[in-house]
Structures are given as C-alpha cells and as structure tokens.
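Worked Example 4.2. Consider the chain below.
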Amino acid sequence: MVRKITKVKVLLFATIVLMIASAVLVLGGSIISLSGNAARMDISGFASESSRPVDSVDVGEVWSHYGGDSGGHRYSQANQIDRGNVAQLALAWQYSTGDMLERAEYMSQAATEGTPIFAAESLVFCTPFNEVIALDPGTGLERWSFDAEIDLEQNPANGFVCRGVAYYQSLETAGACAERIFMGANDGRLVALDAYSGRPCNEFGANGEIHIDPGMELIWPGEFQITSPPVTIGDTVIIGSAIGDNARVVAPAGTVRAFDADTGEPRWAWDPIPRRSADPAASSWEGSQPPQEGHANAWAPLSVDEGLGLVFIPTSSPSPDFYGGLRPGANLYANSVVALEAVTGQIRWSFQTVHHDVWDYDVPAQPGLYSVWRDGALHDVVAQVTKTGLVFVIERATGEPWLPIEERPVPQNGVAGESLSPTQPFPVLTPPVVPNRLSPDDAFGLTLIDRLHCRRQISRSVADGLYTPPSEQGTLLYPFTGGGANWGGAAFDPKRNLLVINMNSLAHHVQLIPAERVDEARRRFPGREVSPQTGAPYGMKREVLLSPLGIPCTPPPWGVLAGIDLSSGEIVWRKSFGEMQGVNLGLPSFGGPIVTAGDLVFIGGSMDNFFRAFDVSNGQEVWRWQLPAAGMATPMTYLWQDRQYVVIYAGGNEDAEGRLGDSILAFALE
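Applying the procedure from the previous section yields the following structure tokens:
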C-alpha cells in the first residue's frame, strides 16, 4: 500500500544532475534552455502592506497549535527577526531524539513531518514513532518524554508519521492533567498526557488512551493509522485517520471521531460517506445503497473556529483511488471541505473540490481560516490549497464561494463502466500555481537521448490535461498525486492578505490493469507500485514519470514557492524553490511555510536540505542554513525570555530517499 504522498525518489539522479549542470554552466549555457519548452517560470510582483488592522486577527507570538493557531494561519507576530537582521540568524541549540541509533532499522519507513507546539512552557512534539518529547525552549534540554511503544513491525501503509500534538486545558480537572497533550498514534490510539510530566492521564479512556475501532477487520495491522494531530474545541477532542489506499473497494470508513477531552467518552462520529438514504448527500452516490465503499477519510490536519463552534474537515477520495464505476455520482462528502458543528457533529455546510475523484486528488492540507481585508472590512474565509495546484476561497460561515468559482468541462472517455463527472470546479481569478497540461514538446531532458525517451513516454500516454481519466493505455496525472499542494499546507500574512504556498510539479503515470492480470503485473514489475483495488474490475500501477537517468520528464521548476493575494486572487510572485549546487531547477518539497511579522517566510521542505528565509513581499531568498537532513516538516517560531527562536525538525523523509536524521534545530539572532 502507498502513502498519500507516494514515492518520489528523484534524488537518485542528483550526481548526474550535478555533473551535467556543472558542465553546462562552465560552457556558459543554461540548463533550462536545453530542454526546449522547459520553464514555465517566474512572475514577480510586489505584495504591498495594506492598512488592515492586524491586531484584530487572533494570531500571536506563541505557537500553541500545529498550525500556529487553531485556524492554521502559520503566522506569528514575533518580529525580533526581520529582513534587516535575518543574515545574523545562527544555530542556538540542537536536540537529537535518538531514533537514528535506537530505531535505525525502521528509519527507512519513517517520514519526519512533526511541528512542535509551545505548551506548558515547553516545546512539545512527536517523533515518527509516536514518542512525545518536551524540551526547554531556551536550551533544547529534554524535560520529559513518553513512548507510546507502537509495534514497529506493523508495516504502516503511510509510513511511520506523526505530524504533531494538541494542547488542552481542562475546566473540570485540577492538579495533574489539568493541562494535557493529545497525540494520535500510528496504531490507531488517541493518547492523553499530562503537559508538565508526560505521564498518561489515567482518567481519560483506559489508562490514558483510547483504541480507535476501525469498524472492520484490517488486512494488516498498519492499514489504519492516525498521522495528523487532533484538534480541541471546548471540552471536545476530535481526530481523523489515515488509511491505506487501493487495497480494496470495501474498506475501513473514514470516520471522524469526537471524544470528551476529560474522560474520553465518545461524543459523536461522522462518516464522510452517507450510509443513510435520508442524508442529503445520498443522492450523489448512485451505486449500491448504502454505499459499500470506504475511506473519504480526513488524514490531513483539521481546523477549528471556536467563535462559530465549527470544526473544518478536509476529506480524501473514496476507495479505491483510480476507479469509480461502482460509485456513480459526485460522491459527497468525499474530496471536500466540510464544516461540522463541534458539539453535535452535524454538517453545517460542505464544498467539494473534486467531483467523483478517480485521481487520488484528496483535500491534502489543513483548511486555512483567515480574515481577508477588502473594501474596508475583514471577511472570514476558508482558503483551501489542493493537489491540483488550484486554490479555492470560500465564505467561512456558509461555504459559498468568496472568490468566484465556476464549473468547467473536463476530459471524459473513461474505461468501460466508469461514470465521470462532466465538469469540475475551478477558481476564476487565480490561475493554477503549477502547470496541469503536458505535451511531448514539454518533455525535459539533460541529454538528447533522455529528452527523446520522455517525449516517447508522454506520446504513448493519454494526456488531455487536468482530470484526464485513468486508462488501460496509461494516463498522465499532472500534477501528480503528491501535489501541487500537500500536507504542509499554506501560511497567511494578514498584513498583505498574502497566502504563501509551496507546490510540486511532477507527473504520475497511472495505468489501470484488468483485475485478472494484477498478479501477473506484480511479477512483471517487481519493486513498483501495483495495487489490486480488490472488488473493482481494475487494479492499478502508478509511478513518477522519470527519464532513464531518473530525472523528471516534466519541465522544471519541479518545485515552486508562491504568494497569492486572497483579496483579488492574483498570484503576486512565484519562484523556483530548491536547487543543487547553485543550479535552481526547483525541487519537490514536503512540509510547508510559516510567515512572521518580521516580513519573513521560513521554510525547509526542499530535497536540497536547506532551511531558508524569504522576503514575504517578493519571494527573494534572504537567508539559508544547511541542515543535517532535509527539513521536510513545517517549522514554527516563538518568543522565550525576550528572544525569538525559529525551529525545524530535520529528519528527512523515506519518500524522498535523501539523508535521514533525528534532529530538532532552533535558530536565533547571534
């Protein structure tokens, strides 16, 4: 089974790229010019500061939630580090979790994606193996740790992942566990710990934990996980799940669950797939009734608006990913942003980003709850970045479009039995952040032979643009199922109405395989992703579109960083992001950006192992630091004893095949 990001593995070609790039540069040429139509690159503008009252936005200097605040701004009003002094930023302390020694044999299955939070006067984070650690914010010395002791032999479908923890302050409990840390675990547990000691809160569930029932027998232990942090609202804690893709049609449901944050008693459970005919969404499922499909799970982080009493759920595709003939219709509430009442779990509204998904285009990132300044007033919106490279902006209270959205015709002619949606939603004002159409003339190559191979691969595939349906011939999904955007999400600068987002620009080649030939395909393609989609008439094979040298066939940049004005939808600036030996081809990235009141964007993410700062107004790089391993996690920042720190977890990612590590690094002004 594959992770939602899927295997990238493009660093296999690093040495070749460096050799050829160096030769080209010595000759005075340009790597990008070698590839013909390679670079659909750069627009550059200036994001001016508005006169909006930033203080009216509920963001601060303490990073108390995974996304900075409960709405995922990833913005801090800390401004001690700014554009004028960021060059003086240096390493303040470094902490090693010990995973490289104690769990070395499992690190190849791990994705280090955790973002610490500032809670109970400590930095608190989780490792990929569900150890929770609290550090002194000023020195990085360990204050306490708790090991959930998960089974390391479970073969998790999404790799070992823990993106973060949640903080909760009880109004019912005094003394120990009055302040709590919640963590979801790779083995499906929800764990509650005392925020000051790390000891389990025994009054929560059974001895401080709840074992989530996936609702059916698993094919293997790692099919069902929790990889993103819980959220809390009032006295309720809410959790989603991650489930292995493409194993079967009848699969675990993607139920979102809420519990009493003090006792662990169940509050409500919401299945994104309507199982009752009375549900208004039932008519969007025209197959068997009730639907037998599973998933549509919320594996990405959730968001909360305490004032509205809503929790915002980003849902994924139904099972399986690449064939939907057994589930005709739009398939609500899959691939949607859904606003649930936090007290009851009832739906307030939903907005679907992809109808009848057969591309694995999940809603992959935390919904951004921002207040956009326009026409002299603040407007509360939800901004949702997507794997397709599109950005949707909707009204937070109603789910109606805030920036205009229209339905456009999309490619048809799916395989026999498929029932595609004739249209898909597109934002009117914001163009795709990364390209979504690929022709043979776009093929990239560092050598003529390399490029000719890529041209041939593209020519042999069905490639009619975004939403081209999977086929037996082989279809190009562009952007690939790792995005566009992914779990790292976006950051929002409230001074400029500016959404900052990193996106990928690679393609997947997806081929449907008749069910009776899946076993043969597995033997024929050992080591490649071939999944059965049991219960469907087709299995599937998926792989990144690469040349014989292991280089993407898609034109660079393969990674971009962009700033979008949410008041107008305009892309203000867009830059190639990630390089090798000074050659800026743009590299795939996982992990997102943050923005500070010092007018800076901080981001790791890129496969080149650099941690960078950019000027938020124009996207120009102003600082970088070589990390011991790729910082494929979203950073955070905080003030402690009048000193601002910027922190990133640098452990690499098993999907990217780069150098692995286990370090938390904190930076401050010298």
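The two ends are 46 Å apart (CA to CA). The longest helix spans residues 14-26. Compare this with Example 4.1 before moving on.
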